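Take the subject:
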Amino acid sequence: MEATINKPASTATLFGHPVGLFVLFFTEMWERFSYYGMRAILLLFLIDNVRGGMGLNEAEGAAIYGIYTASVYLLSLPGGWIADNILGQRKSIWYGGLIIMLGHIILAIPSGPGLFYAGLCTVAMGTGLLKPNISSVVGELYPEGGARKDAAFSIFYMGINLGSLLGISIVGFLGQRVGWHYGFGAAAIAMGLGIVTFQTFGPRYLGEHGNYVARPTTNDGKSSTGNRSLLLFIASLVVIMAVLQLTGILDLTTALGLAQAMGTIISLTALSYFVYILTAGGLDIVEKKRVVVLFVFFLASAMFWAGNEQQGSSLQIFADRFTNLNLFGWQMPSSWFQNLNPAFVLSFSPILAMLWIFLANRNINFSVPAKFATSLLLLGTAYVIMVFASRLALTGTRTSPIYLASTYLFFTLGELFISPVGLSAFSKLSPKRYTSQLMGIWFVGTSLGNLIAGLFAGGFDEKNVHQMPELFQSVAYFGLGAGFLLLLFTKSLQKWMGGIK
């Protein structure tokens, strides 16, 4: 049962869209400033042993980086459940923002490893509460769906990348040139601005959007069955982890072992959730087919982000150690290469948003599955370029920044074919009572990709530099192969979407 609507949202529009979209735009912009800004310097801080960093080796630092970035998105699943069943999306966004700000404040305090890791955990918990729910509220503003909703998510995605651009520039400069903890402090200030924006303008322009909380039914035993299933699943995970530790397959006492174990947890969590919702979620046949489509999109998303999120790990190391950073006589912070991604997104997002509407108005169907396949093909092409760049780096000369810039261009174009489109697709295809949870699953795909990216970067130490071309080549083959495979099933997936475009 939905909440009674007592307070309608303002009908004011801006550029043909509800003003509420832009409230969410700026809230997300500041949150992404804090996240991407801090992420840009995180791995550098972890492996730094000169300027007050943690002094870890590449494998340990990359594993911790992967665990953190994966946790941020993995926690979107419980964050979505909390919103659907307890708080509603709006309160979840508010409390999530407060927790994120607290986490960055902790990181800004020079301290030992214990407090620093506590700060990372705090940021991850807050982001898991905020991230899926702000995207769900964007979807609620467009109940009619269609190309206009896709365009709205493209605009919203521009806010994400504007925040990323500002965050990487400011936090990256402060962290690498002034002091690591000054960068972390700037991230806390940005999240504070996001909270103020949301709380000041949200009540007026969002009305009751985002206040939905699912009411449990009392006429059957589904609720208690679901709780038992959840407890059984958690117990099974604990048993599996214990077996892996006792048999020596994984060493959970090391960062690398924890990262590998987390990959197992993420994969089992996502698979189990889809099985549960299909078998015990009370869905009709049309809804079940749509959820199957979402599972395929989830897999494609994980594959894509495993390559895309190398920008904060292996590509960051490549920029720092193997790329010419001289810019007209000034040494550019290596983290600034990560600015290319949001800069390209901001440049091309309006073009693609207009393209989707242009094609829809002329009944030209560039289907969602086809867009996902295109994104994977573009990702593979990006890493073909990195194969050539890494081979040149083995000669001992720093490579031209054009190689990294071209790589960023291709996988950013791929990102625009999958990320805003995926957000919109999960909003459209998800059953109403599972909207935030399935939006959380979308981010779990990102979580798995981030973890893989972190583990992948662990191979970039000074002892095995000669393996760089083969490592990048594996990503290229993976992206191109997955893209062509998805193209084969495009029409079938489109049918299973049940008329939703």
The radius of gyration is 22 Å. Confidence is low (pLDDT under 50) at residues 1-6. The first helix runs from residue 19 to 47. The CA atoms of residues 123 and 305 lie 20 Å apart.
